[in-house]
């Protein structure tokens, strides 16, 4: 199954993978020719009082932080509760993720994962529920 998914994801395709109760429709774009390393972390669960300096200070002990960005609400100017931390090395990012995920910063537990690049036309997986009775004896 894993190899079949890889083939689908690495070629431009629109296909459906069947399961008795769930099917996945995959829309994929070709993979970029040069694989990039991921040294960018998504940091969720930020307190409204966390600013970019305090977020950078929390992560600099794991390696060189090249950029920190917190996203703010356009109307209120208040933090949206998440941001991104860029490291110069992928190994530093992985170490920071492992050490800080679930730890509290200013009273709130952090949720940390590797950030996904925002790319137009990138892979999109949409789950579709099939073969489910709607209550009236009909199946979709």
UniProtKB/TrEMBL annotation:
InterPro entries: Nucleotide-bd_a/b_plait_sf, RBD_domain_sf, RRM2_NsCP33-like, RRM_dom, SLIRP/GR-RBP-like. The keyword Translocase does not apply. The keyword Cell cycle does not apply. SUPFAM superfamilies: RNA-binding domain, RBD. Residues 39-117 form the RRM domain. Keywords: RNA-binding. CDD domains: RRM2_NsCP33_like. GO terms for molecular function: RNA binding. PANTHER family: HETEROGENEOUS NUCLEAR RIBONUCLEOPROTEIN 87F-RELATED. This is RRM domain-containing protein. It comes from Rhamnella rubrinervis. The lineage of its organism: Eukaryota, Viridiplantae, Streptophyta, Embryophyta, Tracheophyta.
């Amino acid at each position: 199954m894993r190899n079949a998914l890889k083939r689908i994801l690495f070629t431009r395709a629109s296909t459906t993978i069947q399961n008795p109760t769930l099917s996945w429709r995959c829309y994929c774009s070709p993979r970029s020719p040069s694989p990039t390393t991921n040294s960018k972390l998504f940091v969720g669960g930020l307190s409204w009082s966390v600013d970019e300096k305090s977020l950078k200070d929390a992560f600099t002990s794991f390696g060189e932080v090249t950029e920190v960005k917190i996203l703010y609400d356009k109307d209120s100017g208040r933090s949206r509760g998440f941001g991104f931390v860029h490291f110069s090395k992928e190994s530093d990012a992985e170490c920071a993720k492992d050490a800080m995920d679930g730890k509290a910063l200013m009273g709130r537990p952090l949720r940390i994962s590797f950030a996904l690049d925002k790319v137009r036309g990138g892979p999109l997986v949409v789950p579709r529920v099939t073969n489910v009775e709607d209550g009236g004896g009909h199946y979709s």
